[in-house]
Amino acid sequence: GSASLPNLKPDWYTITEISCPPAYVLDTQVRHIEVKSGEVAEITIENYAKPSLEIRKVDEATGQPLAGATFRVAANGGLDYRDIVSGPDGVARLTGMEPGHYTVTEIVAPEGYILVEQPQTVEIIAGKVTTITVTNAQKPVLEILKIDSITKQPLQYATFHISYNNGETIG
User: Fold this and answer.
1) Least CB-packed of 29, 113, 119, 165 within 10 Å?
2) What is the pLDDT of residues 67-126, one digit of tens each?
């Protein structure tokens, strides 16, 4: 993590970082330092780790983590994107990102849940983990109970036609 340049003549020097380790953000700041005769001039340049994004997927009613949600994380107006899936802990992670603004869109909801269609915009900051939480509501369930009007006992073998109000058949 250090470099030394011996035998320099006393003068002002310009230092610009032109590459850094892959997991870090390049520091493009130009620095000026004076090297004086008989002294060691020292400068410290810090690099931030590339940031990461953590998307927490939870059930709207219970707060329990949900696996199997697919998110599209897009930069540059959607031209550059990556799709990530929430694991058993309900978390989808992207590491080694470039700082900037990203759009996060759920493209596949967990089984039995309603897709969240509204995208979220997040700012990814160097050296930080950005965390967002996306909640899903369970898909509603229609349960039809067919019972005898007097005994209140369940009746078998009834058939129903289900459709939307506009007439479109569901089943």
Assistant:
1) 165
2) 999 999 999 777 889 999 999 999 999 988 888 999 999 999 999 999 999 999 999 998
Could you give the CA distance from residue 18 to residue 32 in angstroms, rounded to a whole number? 15
**Of 94, 91, 78, which is closest to residue 129 (Cα–Cα)?**
94
Q: Three-state SS for 76? A: helix
Q: Is 126 exposed, middle or buried (0-12, 13-18, 19+ CB in 10 A)?
A: middle
Nearest to 75 by CA among 105, 54, 55: 105
Q: Which residues pair with 32 in a beta bridge?
A: 14
Under 8 Å between Cβ of 35 and 43: no
pLDDT tens for each residue of 29-75:
999 999 999 999 999 998 888 889 999 999 999 999 999 999 999 99
